[in-house]
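User: Please run a holo structure prediction.
Assistant: Happy to. Please share the sequence and the ligand.
User: Here you go; the ligand is zinc ion.
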Amino acid sequence: MIVDQVKVGSFRTNCYLLKSGNDVIIVDPGDDYVTIKNHIEGYTVVAILVTHYHFDHVGALAYFKDIDVYDYRCDKKKYNLGSFSFSIIDTKGHTSDSVSFYFEDEKVLFVGDFIFKNTIGRTDLETSSFDDINKYIEIIKKYPDDIKVYPGHGHITYLGEEIKNNPFF
Ligand SMILES: [Zn+2]
């Protein structure tokens, strides 16, 4: 699986394109359909994963009408789609609908605005909860250190780096 990182919209949100063969999964189709479209030319979109429903993460979602969306409403926690397999982890706090997507075989985790390199997502917004974000940090800390963490903004990091350096951990 190849992970392409594309910055979209005025908040420079990270949209991730997970490519395997001719298939692509879009993580957080932020507000720039044209850029996303250019990066997936020739690929078949097999799924869209939404970490949470802030506009900068889903602004282009309406353009992908016929594609299955995986988000906080999924009642199943593990999925196998073609050569992709991932699980959905509750990581509320930034919003009450925040989830992360864990690709265990590749040891990669897409966290949206749950955690960032050396900090965490805002908890002063509608449906935010600082208590929740702390609760889910305690849970995510138990995952392997060498997981690569792909956040919704800023730099890619490793879970072990955050456990060591992030003051909120
Ligand atoms: Zn957000």
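The two ends are 29 Å apart (CA to CA).
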